[in-house]
Amino acid sequence: MSAIIQFHNVSKHFGSLKVIDEVDLEVHRGEVVVLVGPSGSGKSTLLRCINGLEMISGGDLIVDQLSVKGGNKVLREIRQEAGMVFQQFNLFPQMTALENVAFGQRQVRHVGRTEAKRHARELLEKVGLADKEAHYPHELSGGQQQRVAIARSLAIKPKVMLFDEPTSALDPELKQEVLNVMRTLADEHMTMVVVTHEMSFAKQVGTRLIFMEHGKIAVDGKPADVIDSPPNDRMRDFLRHV
Amino acid sequence: MNVDWSIISGFLPQLIAGARVTLYITVVGLAGGMLIGALVGLMRAYGGHLINGIAFVYVEVIRGTPIVVQVMFLYFALPVLASIRIDPMTTAILAIMINAGAYIAEIVRGAVLSISRGLTEAGLSIGLPRWKVVVHIVGPLAFRRLIPPLGNQCIVSLKDTSLFIVIGVSELTRTGQEIMASNFRAVEIWTAVAVFYLIMTGTLTMILRMIEKRMRIL
């Protein structure tokens, strides 16, 4: 397996605050990496560095052989290979579900209108929302919005999917429908990096679990192993609270 | 008291001519003001230190001085400073453009900044360049939010044209003043002038309400 994401000694500062502290990490194709940790541990920032929503302050970060330090054009290429799903969904409110999914392909991949729509319908069907294509985001439940958001990211045909607490804003019964879609993606060997507090998802779907603390990777191992027998007290303590 | 409303009818053609001048200055001035406002507002919202700074100075200078002073400056000081002499009509249009531009810039900036950062990030995340995020995502959403304050500014600018009386532009207020000077019918003439303004601002309000109804604020 080849590494698709490589952190080389990556640091990130916000002013004098060091959020990511000299992290080395390789994510390989087909891996489902689950990032956990207490709030402020840098897990979301680590994720957002991968597609350049946050610029790294030190070291280098390579995504699909491109450096995030390569400038705007390279950054756009990286973002097309690394789709992002947000906690707050962030669907475009002036567009229907179908338009949300078709929009990116038309603008970024320069796909024709009919082809983009056809592909968008396929993706909405994949996330179980074929009947909602004409609905606007405010007419959809949180879980449905998040599934449209996943379809929107998939539409660009990314090689990696980044999930930033995708179920944290959802009611418990709506979480499952989103997690199921993510499970399907994992089954199709999509490379995924997921920031989440869903330990059962981590255990069932994750191929690797990373516990972050104070901007560093504190634990890195097989989800079942590290969840069932946490290698340190801090993580044991953390797991008791999620 | 001797009030005779019938005398107004004789002056209607004059008043209508004045109202047309007022409307012309307003429409052309606001068209320019919107262009300036959009540009400066975006400079304020997205520009680096230098671009933002230039835009900030413009907005502060215009907002911080009375429009009468701005008109006087354009008409009387500019010829002295730079030997640029412009006729009253051009001065009037220019004054509305520059003045409304500063206020509209703040309206545009506010509307743009009110759009959730998350939507910009979502747009960037699918690989769009920033300008496309502004044009396709932030722009259309911000536009809906700037209609109510923009409508307000249109009405303010329309009424501001009345002060071009000081440089002798024959707009509605000046027309009223001239008729007054000939017959001293203060009640009738100023009432008629006020009604003319109300008709124009009322129409503007109706147009804005129609636009607002057609566009949901998202």
TrEMBL record, chain A:
Keyword hit for tRNA processing: no
Organism: Billgrantia campisalis
Cross-referenced SUPFAM superfamilies: P-loop containing nucleoside triphosphate hydrolases
Chief site of localization: membrane
Record family assignment: Belongs to the ABC transporter superfamily.
Domain of life: Bacteria
Key words, A-Z: ATP-binding, Nucleotide-binding, Transport
Location of the ABC transporter domain: 5-239
Gene assigned in the entry: glnQ
PROSITE patterns for this protein: ABC_TRANSPORTER_1 (PS00211), ABC_TRANSPORTER_2 (PS50893)
Membrane protein topology class: Peripheral membrane protein
NCBIfam families: PRK09493.1
Protein name: Glutamine ABC transporter ATP-binding protein GlnQ
Compartments, record wording: Cell inner membrane
InterPro entries in UniProt: AAA+_ATPase (IPR003593), ABC_ATPase_HisP-typ (IPR030679), ABC_transporter-like_ATP-bd (IPR003439), ABC_transporter-like_CS (IPR017871), MetN_ABC_transporter-like (IPR050086), P-loop_NTPase (IPR027417)
Gene3D superfamilies: P-loop containing nucleotide triphosphate hydrolases
Single Gene Ontology MF annotation: ATP binding
Pfam families: ABC_tran
UniProtKB/TrEMBL annotation, chain B:
Cellular compartments annotated: Cell inner membrane; Cell membrane
Gene3D superfamilies: MetI-like (1.10.3720.10)
Domain of life: Bacteria
Transmembrane intervals: 21-43, 55-78, 90-112, 189-208
Topology with respect to the bilayer: Multi-pass membrane protein
Main subcellular location of this protein, as a coarse class: membrane
Keyword check for Transmembrane helix: yes
Family matches, as InterPro entries: AA_ABC_transptr_permease_3TM, ArtM/GltK/GlnP/TcyL/YhdX-like, MetI-like, MetI-like_sf
Domain ABC transmembrane type-1 as annotated: residue spans: 19-208
Keyword Lipid biosynthesis tagged: no
UniProt KW keywords: Amino-acid transport, Cell membrane, Membrane, Transmembrane, Transmembrane helix, Transport
Function, as annotated: Part of the binding-protein-dependent transport system for glutamine; probably responsible for the translocation of the substrate across the membrane.
Record family assignment: Belongs to the binding-protein-dependent transport system permease family. HisMQ subfamily.
Protein name: Glutamine ABC transporter permease GlnP
